[in-house]
């Protein structure tokens, strides 16, 4: 998978451009999170593809002429879907539900999209980030990253902490949908990626998220009117994501709009 992704980013720009995303769309090859011409851009190149369920695959964005790419992505996607099922089942139990609790509430398996990020070397890593601070809107995100280049950082106690790669392992991050469903028991993690002067870096993020039409909100078992009142309103997932992408990414600021005000209690 890593080799297939590296081969894609090594293609000449003219070739990669054939898979370019349309303006205001998220699928395809391009730049991340651009909402205004005035913003400082992140130092990265990326391609995002919807991968599960398979009828959501839009092959016009897939570099099918690149030998082995489709096969590698399909196999990787299949394995990630197993991970998604396992995470969904285990988090159901953590939230006081049966193993199939979240699956039932969400009307089925989580959907999946894979974003492949390429961060070129950067002569001024002190000035430019690879990805600005954000949390993912997903239920969960898995990250496969280069074994020997550290780039990912998470916000912990108001400080940025580098996440050193452990060879042959995945990082699993909690996204906003899990924060909302768990009534803030399991918080989405704020993270960013930094650039460096010495080596380019690749990361492969698998986003696992509810169906667009699904309404998400704190599950009943995580609400206790006395001790743990409902902190988020129910919202259709697609509306949550639309709102998130219409804003400039600034850490977790976007999660606020789904919050119930304390005065509502
Ligand atoms: O490159 C990384 O380690 C982080 C990527 C990321 O946060 C994302 O694609 O959402
Ligand atoms: Fe992310």
TrEMBL record:
Molecular function terms, GO-annotated: metal ion binding; oxidoreductase activity
Alphabetical keyword list: Iron, Metal-binding, Oxidoreductase
**Which domain of life, per UniProt?**
Eukaryota
Question: Which residues span the membrane?
Answer: none
Where does the record place the Fe2OG dioxygenase domain? 110-210
Q: Entry's Pfam families?
A: 2OG-FeII_Oxy, DIOX_N
Family membership, please give it: Belongs to the iron/ascorbate-dependent oxidoreductase family.
Q: What is this protein called?
A: Fe2OG dioxygenase domain-containing protein
Q: Which organism is it from?
A: Gossypium darwinii
């Amino acid at each position: 998978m890593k080799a297939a992704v590296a081969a894609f980013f090594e293609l000449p720009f003219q070739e990669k451009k054939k898979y370019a995303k349309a303006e205001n769309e998220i699928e395809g090859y391009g730049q991340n999170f651009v909402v205004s011409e005035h913003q400082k851009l992140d130092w990265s190149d990326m391609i995002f593809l919807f991968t599960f369920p398979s009828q959501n695959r839009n092959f016009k964005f897939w570099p099918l002429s690149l030998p082995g790419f489709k096969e590698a992505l399909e196999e990787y996607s299949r394995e990630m879907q197993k991970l998604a099922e396992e995470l969904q089942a285990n988090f159901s139990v953590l939230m006081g539900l049966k193993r199939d609790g979240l699956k039932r509430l969400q009307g089925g398996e989580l959907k999946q999209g894979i974003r492949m990020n390429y961060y070129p070397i950067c002569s001024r890593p002190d000035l430019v980030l690879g990805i600005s601070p954000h949390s993912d809107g997903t239920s969960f995100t898995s990250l496969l990253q280069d074994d020997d280049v550290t780039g990912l950082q998470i916000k912990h106690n108001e400080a940025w902490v580098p996440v050193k790669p452990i060879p042959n392992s995945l990082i699993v991050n909690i996204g906003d949908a899990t924060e909302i469903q768990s009534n803030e028991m399991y918080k989405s993690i704020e993270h960013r990626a930094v650039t460096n002067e010495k080596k380019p870096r690749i990361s492969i993020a698998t986003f696992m998220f509810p169906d667009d039409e699904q309404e998400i909100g704190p599950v009943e078992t995580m609400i206790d009117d006395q001790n743990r009142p409902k902190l988020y309103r129910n919202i259709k997932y697609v509306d949550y994501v639309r709102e998130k992408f219409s804003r400039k990414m600034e850490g977790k600021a976007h999660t606020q709009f789904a919050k119930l005000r304390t005065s509502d209690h």
